[in-house]
User: Fold this.
Amino acid sequence: MRERGTPVEIWTMGIKAVLLSYVAIQSYESVDLISTWYMLSILIYLCLNISIHIVKKASSKSIVLLLAMLAIAVSSSYIHPLFMLLLPLNIYELFAIYLRKHGLIVLLMLAPLVLISQYAQSILVTYGLVALLSFLYNLLLHTYISRMTDLRADLENRHEHIQQLTKSLNENKEYIRQSDYTIKLEERNRLSQEIHDKIGHSMTGALIQMEASKRLFTSNPDKSAELLQNAIHISKDGIETIRLVLKNMKPPTEQLGINRMKLFIDEFSAKQTVRTSLTHEGNVDSMTPIQWKVIQENTQEALTNAMKYSNATVVSIHIQVLRTLIKVEVSDNGQGAQKVIKGLGIIGMEERAASVNGTIIVDGSRGFSVTTLIPHG
Amino acid sequence: MNVLEVKQLSKKFGDFIAVDNITMSVKEGEIFGFLGANGAGKSTAINMIASLLRVTKGEIEVLGKNIAKHSKFAKMNIGIVPQEMAIYEDMTAYENVRFFAGLYGLRGAELKERVIEALAFVGLGDKHKSYPKNFSGGMKRRLNIACAIAHRPKLLIMDEPTVGIDPQSRNYILGSVKKLNELGCTIIYTSHYMEEVEEICTRIAIIDHGKIIAEGTKGQLKAIITNQKNISIEVRSAENLNKSKLEAIAGVNRVEVEDRIVKVTSDSEINNLNRIIQQLMADDLEIRAVEENEPSLETVFLTLTGRSLRDQ
Assistant:
């Protein structure tokens, strides 16, 4: 596998190459003869600057960088002052490992100016320019690269999250399909059972009586009439049974309102370790199904939150039906929260409550409590 | 016309939401009460209305004009009595009021006249040359009010103006609030004291955790809980009681007799105590004591927020 340099490395090499070419071209024009020492120092510079990216440890990196800076210093004083222009980048690279403050780094990069002003005044301005430009270049590079890295990490997280969501969505869809099917089967089963047990038997009974009555119609009209009467009775019973079966198809009361809530809370506390209690006052029967739906969903959300964050041992749910307001409070005895931050859960509860013109109050000062207020009546 | 119109107003301090999506309006001539525990968001909301705090989200209109766009107009028409005393101890009472009235652009003879008028209004007409450092808490509060009303604002905002003062000064301040209101000033009033709000406010908003959870007249707020009141009348003997006649009185729902006590349950909106007593007297029952139980604002507050106003 081929390992590629990080973007920072590639861009740093790039700027170094540009600077080196500038130095080479400038010095070529100003010097008549290229000495072997000149070539050697360029090669040493290249070697050292490439090895920076090969060694991995910070300490060895600093050693290589120090060597490179030394080489630059030597070659600039003995061979050509323009070599000095290569220094700022190495200074930046060295101190960026240890220092966080950019102000300090830029000062260090400009520090050689003091020396230059005494020994090589011809490149004073050029050095300043190169140092500042290199600094800005590096600063920009690091800022953008770190931004990009952050964004990429964020993007990956989101991808993963979306994948999880898609997965659970698919699972849920499958679950819904399954339970839909199961419910249909159960219902069909119940209907056929009842039809078979009750109506089927009556119909058969009535049929037998009528058959018998037909045979006796001429020979024994009285008996025949009696049998016919029996058949009529049985049919009447059958019709009554059909009515009852149809009536039973409506959901019984224990599946609605406060009973459904009780069932839900019982199921919850059976699965969890906390103790839960449900109390209510006022006329809970006057609440509409849509209000129950909102309350149950908010209660579920609040209970889940309590399980996740509160470390509570007791959660209590209190439903209060006032004259023009319904108040549902889910409170726990857990650690609460000094500062309540609105997350998706709370916003969800808020939106559900708002759909029936209600609102929610979240309080983290005495345990944690979520109160849903819904106007009513 | 609405003197104040607040639309979906929110204020965040970092992650903390002090005021959460409040919508309300105050009509001309109202005394609008803000009830809420400490930290519920009353002062934050009020300070945004008075342009003392920057709005995070939402709009505020004073006399139909957006305060962000017409800040000078809004400031000229609003007077604020802040919770923290805002007076200079080393300036005389007169100089204090003149200073604040001057900020609102009053000059010359008009300025002088208004300052004298404001000081007289709060009962400090004889203290022009006195220094506030020698004032009692109540007098300082009254001076604070004078500073806020000298420019005759259309809307006066009072943030807990009766905290920590003697009952006499409090009564004086409540009296001046009513008088100001009669003179055409619309007032927003916050207080810790339920009785004050109940006594002077024409409309009340209960605020909790930055949200308005109930709003309306005293009657409307009480009706959230119940629209019934219980009247217990102790008599010497209830033998002669004509129950059906009592039940026929408008508003009466139920009459029960327990030993010597007649218990009447009635609609709280209808004032029928006189007629009930008259009926009992007509039956020649000797009345010993009458007690009327209506849910108080305190009960409403306790039921809705789960805590009493002063339990901090």
About this structure: The interface with chain B takes residues 320, 322-325, 327, 329, 339, 341-342, 359, 361-363, 369, 371, 373 of chain A (CB under 8 Å). The mean pLDDT of chain A is 85. Residues 57 and 63 of chain A are 10 Å apart (CA to CA). Chain A has three domains: 7-149, 174-253, 255-375.
